[in-house]
Amino acid sequence: MGANLGANKESADRIGDYVTGLRRVWGLCDYVTVNVSSPNTPGLRDLQSHAALEELAGRIAETRAGLKAGGDAPIFLKVAPDLADEDAPAITATVRRFGLDGVIVSNTTIARPETLASSARGEAGGLSGAPLMGPSTRMLALFHQADPALALIGAGGIASGADAYAKLRAGASAVQLYTALVYGGPELVVRIKRDLAARLRADGFASAGEARGAL
Does domain 2-211 have CATH number 3.40.50.720? Predict the structure, then answer.
């Protein structure tokens, strides 16, 4: 059970919102996501800039240190798929410097591929589902290249065992499902696990961990 923290749209102290959220959910969840990448909160992605992220990560680390008497939980930073390539090394360095446990790659995208056929393709906000698979997996691979030992959770566009396998091979330690659950329901998890296991065996991997980063 994870808790996803984000700042309030009208907040005068967005970093303070994350600190308050972390204190409130501590001890109630198995891991915490510090989400700085939702495109649906105007300006939130500005927290991915170097100076802002350093301040946020420092405040989170300080708060976590004061809460550890009540146990501990992994803290993951959730990033956008629309980052520049050179952002991956800088962000992984910040995550390491302040002792966060990993990165979730990625949130939804603000891009609008030419292949979109829906009449709603011009709507504002984050695009999820199948069109997100390619860009999110590419960004995932860049983060893995920047720090191969850092724990990464692959998210975005996963709807099959093949998709999950692609995330693993791009560097994911684990994967998350979102949009596909709307269409496939809970049984989708069972189907993905079955297909993924078959793909791992076919390629000679004894575990998902062995396939991590094996592009």
Answer: no
